[in-house]
User: Fold this.
Amino acid sequence: MKILIDAMGGDNAPDAVIKGAVEAIKEIDSEIILVGQEEVINKKVKEICDVEKLSDISSKLKIKHATEVIEMGEIPTQAIRSKKDSSMVVGFDMLNKNEGDVFISAGNTGALLTGATLLVGRIKGIDRPAITTMLPSEAHGFLLIDAGSNTNCRPINLIQFAQMASIYLSDACEIKSPRIGLLNIGTEENKGNELVKETFQELKQNSDKYGINFVGSIEARDVFSGAIDALITDGFTGNVFLKTMEGMGKLVKKNLTKSLKRNILSMIASIPTLPAIKRFAKTMDYREYGGALFLGVKRPVVKAHGSSDEYSFYCTIKQAEAFAKSKAVEHLGRGYL
Amino acid sequence: MKILIDAMGGDNAPDAVIKGAVEAIKEIDSEIILVGQEEVINKKVKEICDVEKLSDISSKLKIKHATEVIEMGEIPTQAIRSKKDSSMVVGFDMLNKNEGDVFISAGNTGALLTGATLLVGRIKGIDRPAITTMLPSEAHGFLLIDAGSNTNCRPINLIQFAQMASIYLSDACEIKSPRIGLLNIGTEENKGNELVKETFQELKQNSDKYGINFVGSIEARDVFSGAIDALITDGFTGNVFLKTMEGMGKLVKKNLTKSLKRNILSMIASIPTLPAIKRFAKTMDYREYGGALFLGVKRPVVKAHGSSDEYSFYCTIKQAEAFAKSKAVEHLGRGYL
Assistant:
């Protein structure tokens, strides 16, 4: 397998991208191709690796030169159309030509989604590709779809999200008959806005036809219990959900740190608990769940968080390899729908 | 002031209601009137208080007899219309007759909101009353409106929510020119669903006319930073937001406890940090923020959480007194809008 990585995308590019790639390469079977300005990448790789390490990894780490960079603030369609030699567009071209099995970028999200849709193309039968991300729960976590790409949805979009989630989870995560929950503000049939009520009725009546193990509506406070494998929602609500988690996580961290560091005594008292606090922090660390998969396009595309650090890239690369190996995208394309 | 409390409402009624009332009564100026089955309430009060305490509080704690109880599963409109002698309907009647200054209930939410709208009535100029709740932030917290009563909204509803929040926060919480943020999935003008985009344009152009200090769109991950005093959203998104916080809070608590109790060593090690962990838990304890205010009806109505314990009731009673004293509802009614 070959993993294509946009070396120039993200707030911490290219440093964090390259460091993450060097870390991950030891643990994966695939080859990594860093796409971007060759000279810049080469210099960074040499800074990071000593001669011995360099010779160790050189057979698995390649560079594909691309002169331009799509910046974070650029208008997506325009950037994709005009910057033909950008690391992002070159990455998509390689993916299309089968010169890579999955493409990762932490760059301009709009440009990545637009590029994936325009250059890679939608899978036949999928009206709206959607961004998805794994989130923590008391069990093995759950997949959120749509995490933010489609702000205005119709019931058919949510149903297709459910189908894509089902195929991805069974193929790539080996979850048999994944349990699909509809994000709602109550579990009774009359609860929810129009979109949710209509989707609920359609899924309740025809989930077999769609090949979905629909477990009903679920409230946001219950999704972390391990009762579902995928949470279906429109991109507006999904993005609010995701960012509420993120905000709460930050608030919790600040309050915990403040409580532990209130005075010298509590600081000293906290030292023996540091391993436990670290274990706790690890269970709440989203970076381990990797990047966001863009499901519904013809080839595997992974969006890494814009502010990804080297550890995030490391996790995302490992996840991207599993995603590509699973052939979930091929299954989606082969008329599962 | 007189605080009316539905003694029969909520999962832990009447025990938790009465205990909370007995706790709060020492610290407030107001009289408390417990509405419900006199015999049951009397028995409970005697169980909780010894003779001395009873004589201490008896001048401030009254009972208003009501024979019926609206149960949690009942259909709101039907329950309100048929159970004329329920603790909830009697409470509303007393509120209407000025026999109390604020009404608190932890009972059937739908029935409470329906009762407030039908029996107490909407303030002229307010199309949709909304449920609001204070939530924690790094500063003094912020008000969420709508927290779940209106699942389908138009821009005018959100604008009225912003107006009500502004008046409540300046009157009852003494916040000068409260900062109003619109819950969105980005801060750029083109971000959001149709509702949010239209509301944004209207508020951007006419916030002066509406008397609102509009600070723009805000993402869910940033609302806890202390940058806003009120968060405006439709009831569907607001309820998802609120319950995501709740779910994350539970997940954090479980993971932290699990990490601290993993083995006997980490349990012993955690003992000196317990005061700090407790301080932390306190900062994340929603009960301190009290109940949910139903803004937009002619008299002050407060919804306590269905699963409120005695401490929640204690906090809610204190908050309800401040709410009634502030005269925010009168100001809303006096044509501020």
